[in-house]
Structures are given as structure tokens and as C-alpha cells.
Amino acid sequence: MKFDVHLDDEQINKIASITADKVLETVKYQKDNNDWYDREIKNLKHEIQARDSMIAKKDFYIERLTARITELRSEKRGND
Question: Who contacts 50 (Cβ-Cβ below 8 Å, separation ≥6)?
Fold first, then answer.
């Protein structure tokens, strides 16, 4: 099957314009989508850093309490 289509310049320009608009819209959508993913990744990294900081503080606090408990036990044994 063969089709012979003849378009005048106005029709070709209209098709080109519509195609260009669709391409630009697709590019804009993809850019917005990528920007959203970039923001989401940045937010997740921030959450991970906050959790890492909390874990480090907790570990430091546990070490300080363990040292204090050991110190108090030594004092108590010295007093007995």
C-alpha cells in the first residue's frame, strides 16, 4: 500500500510547530522530573546524615555513661 501526500508550506509549518511544541514539553517534563529526583536524593542524604549524627551522639553518650558507671563502681569498691 502506498500513500501519496502533498502538503503545502503552511501545513508543513503547522506540523513542525506542533512537533516542536511537543518536544519542548517533553524536555521540560523530563527536566522537572530530574529536578524532583535531585531534590529527593538531597533530602534523603540529609536524613541519612541526621541519623548518622544521632547514632554517633548515642554511641558517645553510651561511652561516657559506661566510663562513669565504671568510675562509680571503682569508688564503691574502694569505700567497701
Answer: none
Instruction: Locate all alpha helices (DSSP H) within the chain, ordered by sequence.
Output: 9-79
Q: What share of the chain is helix, strand, coil (3-state, %, to 5)?
A: 90, 0, 10
Q: What pLDDT tens digit does each residue of the chain (80 aa) get?
A: 787 888 899 999 999 999 999 999 999 999 999 999 999 999 999 999 999 999 999 999 999 999 999 999 998 888 76
8 A C-beta contact, residue 15 and residue 7? yes
Query: What pTM value is reported for the model?
Result: 0.58
How far, in Å, CA of 15 to CA of 8, rounded? 11
State the cell numbers at 37.
529526583
